[in-house]
Amino acid sequence: MSVAWPTRLDEAVDAAAATPGATLLAGGTDLAVEVNAGRRRPVAVVALRRVRELGEVQITPAEVVLGAGMTFSAIAAELAAAVPALAAAARTVGSPQIRNAGTVGGNIATASPAGDTLPVLAALDASVELSSTAGTRTVPLRELITGVKCTAIRPGEVLVRVRVPPARGAQQFLKVGTRNAMVIALASAALVVDEERRTVACGLGSVGPVPVRPVEAEAFIAGEIDWGRLTVPEAAVARFAELVAGAARPITDHRATAEYRRHAVAVLAGRALRRSIDVISA
Ligand SMILES: Cc1cc2nc3c(=O)[nH]c(=O)nc-3n(C[C@H](O)[C@H](O)[C@H](O)COP(=O)(O)OP(=O)(O)OC[C@H]3O[C@@H](n4cnc5c(N)ncnc54)[C@H](O)[C@@H]3O)c2cc1C
Q: With a 6 A CB cut-off, is 153 part of the ligand 1 pocket?
């Protein structure tokens, strides 16, 4: 097996193009598991860890642009103010070792329904930049993730950056699992309450093959919030949670039943909403 260690982005893109079928390696926290289990046998690897551009972040009033190689630890440390829900999601991932190695780009490219950054990025209407020797294209996350562990990333493409809007109002990320740490989400919810635009955006994880946006629930609750006083009736929160449950498409597996997941995600969304209103009204 050949391993390329590019240090610049153009070298990484060239290396990915030079060996058809080359596997990109970022933190290795998903890939190594696949290799160890015998599910993947890379013939050639392009290691991205030394590519400095992939670890960079730019925060402007208009946009936050994260390098795909940003680790969960870096996101938690550097983006707590700019993208609080993403920082909160990053803090819940695995253990310190996993957070120090695992990257947002790897989380997106793996496209697991339980990927913790995905509901946040869905709620934020994130888009990603993909580069290859053919050029660069920008793809909305909702089009990039096409199914369970399936993406529209083409062979030879490197996920380079993730673009999200900067925080306005309040953001929350909540996750439930079978224990408190080192746990795969059974259900997760991200909520973005934008006080300025008077909108609510919600992303749900682990309750569908791709991150779910409960658009009916979002529109309903945005119409129920008293944006002047920053209050919301408890009956409206309950209806919001019901609509969220209705939008979820969970499965039953060895971790949880579909019924439990549907109930849990509704509780999380209602809780995230109450917390968001508390934050912006404080
Ligand atoms: C013990 C343990 C606990 C975990 N806990 C969690 C958890 O709580 N929450 C969670 O969401 N995940 C968890 N994970 C999964 C994993 O850590 C994340 O999905 C992580 O984001 C993967 O990133 P990585 O950099 O390690 O990717 P890698 O393993 O290096 O790569 C994963 C896939 O993405 C591709 N890839 C990587 N970078 C790029 C790029 N820039 N462009 C294109 N393709 C790319 C690779 O080719 C590969 O197919 C856990 C894993 C382990 C082993």
A: yes
Q: Is 122 in the pocket of ligand 1 (CB under 6 A)?
A: no
* pLDDT tens track for 110-149: 999 999 999 999 999 999 999 999 999 999 999 999 999 9
Query: For ligand 1, is residue 109 a contact (CB within 6 Å)?
Result: yes
The ligand 1 atom at the shortest distance from the C-alpha of residue 24 is 47
**CA 34 remoteness from chain centre:** 20
pTM greater than the 0.85 cutoff: yes
Which atom from ligand 1 is nearest to the alpha carbon of 101? 26
| 2-164, CATH topology level | 3.30.465
Please tell me the CATH code under which domain 170-281 is placed: 3.30.390.50
Residue spans of the domains in the chain: they are: 2-164, 170-281
Give the nearest ligand 1 atom to 68 CA: 41
* Atom 34 (ligand 1) nearest CA: 106
